[in-house]
Write a structure and sequence with these properties.
two-stranded antiparallel sheet, 2 strands, mainly alpha, single chain, 286 residues, elongated
Amino acid sequence: MASEELRYEDLTPAAPLDKATLNKMVWRSMNLQISFNYERMQAAGWLWSILPALEKIHTNKHDLSVSMKHNLEFFNTHPFLVTFVMGIVLSMEQNKADINSIRAVRVAAMGPLGGIGDALFWFTLVPITAGITANMAISGSMAGPIIYFIITFGVQMALRYWLMYWSYDVGTKAIETLTKNAREFTHAASMLGVFVVGALTCNYGATTLGMTIANGDTPVVIQDKLNSILPAAIPLAFTLMCYSLIKKKGWSATKCILLLLVIGIVGCMFGIWSGSYTSLIPVPWH
């Protein structure tokens, strides 16, 4: 971008954005990851989401072009929390702030939200909700997928609306409010997420051994022996295997799924795995 394009021609603050425009951008924000690419990540979806506001703020065609260009730069944040960044950036655009300042604020706001959003949603809300509702669906209840959709969609939409209005009203001060304890908050939420994943692995891991060892009239069931030592040892082993492959070997989730599929098919063919679900929590002897 040429040096003469680093500032707006019309520096008169624009009128505040109306609720209809803010609401429109909230719904557009759901398409943040359209045209996702590894060069600019979510930049195209970001610009498309805030374009209605930019067109109202910059009535000068040159300024609108400049704004669209610098808002097409690299952008990547959590899709559920993106309206927080939108509100702050649009507040600065409305006041015709320096473009380099807008760039800096955009980058500073998008970074912490990625970790916070992952900890809140991918590691906490979604696994907990999916774990509960999937079990309902397996039991034949239609309420399972419906409740999952209502909870996950409802929570993210409520956050999108609230963050848009709050951050737009607060402006740049919102960054300090959210990021002041971002590291501690992200760490605590991540620990909670790991705890939840471990609990889900134990409670819903259905992989059990089907092998037995002949022992006269009373064969030894290997799975029962494992349950008395470490319940859910097999699901735990597979979970750690996938973690190691992804973390250390650079495997994708798709490769891990295919590997587990092969292990499952081959194991069932040779009688290694049990063909039916059994409780992994040992039952007390009476």
